[in-house]
Amino acid sequence: MDGTINGRIPQGESMSEMAARMHQALNACLELPEGSRPLIVSHGMALGVLLSTILGLPANAERRLRLRNCSLSRVDHQQSVWLASGWVVEMAGDVAH
Asked: Across the chain, what does the average pLDDT equal?
């Protein structure tokens, strides 16, 4: 892997491909019944890529997020004329538990 969003381990996926896969999983949650509270569990790099791209950063910016093992992050989807519409990060990397 060369550290770029398009670099890849042989037979693996790039950071940009991982981001697309993670967003596809997250967007599938929008089709759940109203009031659902889905839980997405994955490894830290995949979750870091997801949070980075929600924040508008490149997929490889996940290296600047410290998501410890078993940490909790929370995202929400909102529609607003005043706030950013779409996915927003409410909490990232909480280990208070």
From this structure: 90
pTM, entire model: 0.86
Angle in degrees, CA 64, 10, 51, rounded to 5: 25
pLDDT tens for 40-52 read: 999 888 999 999 9
CA dist., res. 5 & res. 15, Å (int): 5
> What's the length of the chain?
97
Instruction: Find tokens 């997020």 and name the residue.
Output: 65
- The range of the structural domain enclosing residue 44 comes to 15-70
The total number of structural domains in the chain stands at 1
Helix (H, G, I), strand (E, B), or coil: what is residue 40? coil
Look at residue 7 and give its three-state secondary structure. coil
- 3-class state of residue 55 by DSSP: coil
Q: Is residue 60 part of a domain?
A: yes
Both tokens assigned to 84: 């950013």
